[in-house]
Specification:
Elements: H1 5-12, H2 16-29, H3 31-41, H4 47-68, H5 72-93, H6 96-112, H7 115-120, H8 123-145, H9 156-167, H10 170-178, H11 195-204
Helix pairs in contact: 3-5, 4-5, 4-6, 5-6, 5-8, 6-8, 6-9, 8-10
Length: 209
């Protein structure tokens, strides 16, 4: 929401007591803002600490949901909850590095144990799950490319591990090809400079959905 200069000026002219009352009222309605302010003002843990906690959470939850998911469609639904936890972590800490590393960790964790689900899921639902995975990978590649080049090496191992899991799975490999994902890009140094535009064009053609 955009505010006019006049509105901003009017708010700034409020008394400190009125501002305090408004702030408390807003905080009661915005859980994310409360967590964000607590992290910035009071938390004794830094971004790296919270990322490490989330890494353990992602691994634990990833293994749990893969073990009791009844199908790949069910797993996709459950994975969205883990993805939501990652999103909340990013909103609170502004952890751009973690947004990529945690998503890659989530994908590798669930794919390591999902073979049985590929065997018992009908082809339509399997394809939908595979598209979800490939779409998440595209997003990670776009985010990686936007980071400083000094960070690229940090993603070398997780991308390589993910590439191995995809190439070993015929359904995932077929989906990657059909949706324009070049497996050579799962090497941070090989990500095209225009990966964001490539992703946009592929989506415009009706893929990655």
């Amino acid at each position: 929401m955009k505010f006019s200069p006049e509105f901003k000026e009017a708010v700034l002219q409020l008394s400190e007591k009125e501002k305090d009352k408004l702030l408390i009222r807003l905080l009661k309605k915005d859980h994310n803002l409360v967590n964000r302010l607590f992290f910035e003002l009071l938390d004794d843990k830094n971004v790296d600490d919270h990322r490490a906690i989330m890494e353990e959470h992602v691994i634990q939850r990833g293994k749990e949901i893969t073990s009791y998911a009844k199908s790949l469609n069910h797993l996709k639904v459950l994975t969205r909850f883990v993805s939501g936890d990652i999103g909340e972590h990013v909103r609170i800490t502004k952890d751009k590095f973690g947004e990529v590393s945690l998503n890659l960790l989530m994908l590798t964790t669930i794919l390591k144990s999902a073979d049985r689900l590929f065997q018992k899921t009908n082809p339509v639902h399997a394809t939908k799950f595979c598209v979800y995975v490939i779409a998440r990978i595209f997003r990670c590649l776009v985010l990686i490319k936007s980071m400083h080049e000094d960070l690229l090496l940090e993603f070398e191992e997780p991308l390589e591990e993910l590439a191995d899991l995809i190439t070993e799975n015929p359904a995932l490999m077929k989906t990657a090809i059909n949706h324009g994902l070049d497996m050579n890009w799962l090497n941070a140094e090989n990500i095209p400079d225009d990966i964001a535009e490539i992703q946009k064009q592929i989506k415009a053609q009706g893929f990655l959905r």
